[in-house]
Amino acid sequence: MSFEIVAKSLSQIGITLALILIAFGIVEAVIFLVYNKVLKAGDKALTGMLLAPAVIGLFLLIVIPLIYELVLSFSNMNLHHFKDPSFGITYFFDNIKRVFTTKILKKMTFWPLLFQTVLWTAIQVTFHVVLGLMLALILNSKIRFKELYKGILILPWAMPPVISGLTWRGEFHSEYGFFNIILRRLFGDAAAIPWMTDGFWNFVAMNITNIWMGVPFMMVICLGALQGVPSEYYEAAAMDGAGKGTRLFQITIPLIKPVLAPSVMLGIIWTFNNFNVPYFINQFMLETSDILVTALYRAAFTYNQYGFAAAFALVIFFILFGISIIYMKKTGALKAVGD
Question: Transmembrane segments in this chain: where (predicted)?
Answer without folding.
Answer: 12-35, 47-68, 118-139, 204-226, 247-272, 306-327
